[in-house]
Task: inverse folding
């Protein structure tokens, strides 16, 4: 079983630190979501893992070895970095045949991944005629070509239609279930939470969180509770007495922040306040993620000034 | 990782791009066609019969340069190099495979070009044409010269990382600098990369360089360009 190990990884472009002392692991058998705003260093980290860029310091290894030491790398690591990378004048099949030849992968794998990604019918068409979604599928086909134990995909859901997004979720879950280490980057939290088991969150090249998705939700997503009653005034007094932070909307509905229905329900019953509605309102996962990255987001300050 | 799979992959890349195959065809057609035209016009007494046959090389070499440039610059578009180097992390091995995959078809088509040009020239000129000995030397020189020019362009394209930049440097250089300076003749001009290789296409070796010496000078230029290209490919982030 192979994992990706990133240790104290730093990459500087001139004076700018794109990746800053990053340490995390991507173990086999689960999908690790790689999150961060644009410019947080996700793509750079992936390029460093693949040996395309040289780190300023630190290491990135696959199963303990640097990428450059792998003899037939496509049989160990499959990557999608840029869906536009296939030459527009070549057919999808020729693009994959070139990669297969370079790592002595049998040609039947080319047809297998074309079928798996739903491109079999357009394999003979020039890539130039493909939509962004089809190019993403071709990039994913290339990543799966060598049946690798490690899969890295940079924003694979970009440009996919709803059906394609469901497809990629299923695919990612299956790859992890087969025991592969899967790292998938995205800048959208909700999308990532739909398929990831674990989250690695970056901001300005630094590690902000390295945690299971469940823990992230539990620790950071604070629910609100919505209460509707026939006696809004009495409810307001009760909430204030118990130190709740609550606000009343024009229609008389109260929203109680950082509360749970299990504590409010009994309280209302005890005070004999007739309840018309009592509902938990999950603050979105997306909001929790934005809160985490807001202070680190590269472009926040700029857009506020503008 | 052995060299053969890398070469195999680079070879498929070349034969699956129509623009590259067109460049090789243009190389043959331009050189041979201009031979027929130029020969018919050059009826003067002191004209060089061998070079009048191979006059079209000035145009054929532009096609050779386009071939070498495009084969390399295609890697520098839209992150294609990332895909290539993820499959072949040994960058020097990859660049050697790329250069070989450029050299072999250019040499093959180049020798064919030389032979076809010679046959056209002999047919048009008849007895006033070059001798078979000279002519065959010209045909081989033509094939080698075109190959060296394609590789020179390939090396430069790897340094500049852009097809447009490479052609913007090389084509004005060939059409203007080399043409003008070359007509002033002799001395330094004979050592320019394209002029040196073309010595083999002239009947009389009256310059400083003989035909093979000229090709050797051209090969030095090409070697330097490939070395610089390999250095850049190895050192820079992909």
Result:
């Amino acid at each position: 079983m192979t994992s990706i190990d990133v240790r104290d990884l730093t990459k500087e472009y001139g004076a700018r630190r794109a990746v800053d002392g990053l340490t995390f692991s991507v173990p086999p058998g689960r999908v690790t979501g790689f999150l961060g705003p644009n410019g947080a260093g996700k793509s750079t980290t992936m390029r460093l893992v693949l040996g395309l860029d040289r780190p300023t310091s630190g290491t990135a290894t696959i199963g303990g070895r640097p990428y450059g030491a792998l003899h037939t790398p496509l049989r160990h690591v499959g990557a999608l970095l840029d869906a536009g990378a296939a030459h527009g004048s070549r057919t999808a099949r020729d693009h994959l045949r070139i990669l297969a030849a370079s790592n002595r992968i049998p040609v039947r794998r080319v047809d297998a991944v074309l079928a798996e990604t739903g491109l079999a019918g357009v394999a003979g068409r020039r890539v130039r005629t493909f939509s962004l979604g089809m190019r993403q599928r071709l990039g994913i086909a290339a990543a799966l070509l060598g049946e690798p134990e490690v899969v890295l995909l940079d924003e694979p859901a970009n440009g996919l239609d709803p059906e394609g997004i469901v497809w990629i979720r299923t695919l990612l879950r299956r790859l992890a279930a087969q025991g592969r280490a899967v790292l998938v980057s995205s800048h959208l939290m909700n999308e990532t939470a739909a398929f990831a088991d674990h989250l690695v969150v970056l901001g300005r090249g630094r590690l902000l969180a390295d945690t299971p998705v469940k823990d992230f939700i539990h620790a950071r997503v604070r629910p609100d509770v919505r209460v509707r009653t026939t006696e809004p005034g009495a409810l307001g007094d009760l909430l204030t007495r118990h130190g709740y932070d609550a606000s009343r909307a024009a229609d008389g509905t109260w929203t109680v922040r950082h509360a749970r229905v299990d504590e409010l329900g009994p309280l209302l019953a005890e005070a004999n306040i007739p309840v018309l509605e009592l509902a938990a309102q999950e603050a979105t996962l997306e909001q929790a993620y934005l809160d985490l990255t807001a202070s680190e987001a590269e472009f926040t300050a700029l857009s506020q000034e503008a | 990782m052995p060299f053969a799979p890398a070469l195999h992959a680079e070879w498929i890349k070349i034969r699956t791009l129509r623009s590259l195959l067109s460049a090789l065809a243009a190389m043959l057609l331009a050189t041979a066609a201009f031979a027929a035209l130029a020969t018919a016009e050059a009826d003067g007494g002191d004209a060089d019969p061998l070079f009048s046959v191979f006059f079209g090389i000035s145009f054929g070499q532009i096609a050779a340069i386009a071939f070498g440039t495009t084969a390399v610059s295609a890697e520098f578009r839209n992150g294609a190099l990332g895909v290539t180097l993820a499959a072949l992390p040994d960058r020097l091995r990859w660049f050697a495979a790329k250069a070989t995959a450029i050299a072999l078809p250019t040499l093959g088509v180049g020798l064919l070009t030389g032979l076809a040009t010679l046959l056209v020239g002999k047919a048009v000129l008849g007895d006033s044409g070059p001798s078979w000995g000279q002519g065959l030397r010209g045909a081989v020189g033509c094939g080698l010269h075109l190959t060296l020019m394609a590789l020179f362009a390939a090396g430069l394209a790897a340094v500049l990382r852009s097809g447009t930049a490479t052609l913007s440097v090389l084509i004005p250089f060939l059409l203007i600098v080399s043409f003008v300076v070359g007509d002033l003749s002799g001395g330094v001009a004979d050592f320019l990369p394209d002029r040196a290789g073309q010595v083999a296409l002239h009947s009389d070796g009256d310059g400083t360089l003989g035909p093979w010496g000229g090709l050797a000078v051209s090969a030095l230029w090409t070697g330097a360009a490939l070395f610089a290209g390999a250095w850049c490919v190895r050192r820079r982030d992909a």
Notes: Confidence is low (pLDDT under 50) at residues 298-306 of chain A. Chain A is about 35% helix and 25% strand. The radius of gyration of chain A is 24 Å. The first strand of chain A starts at residue 4 and ends at 13.
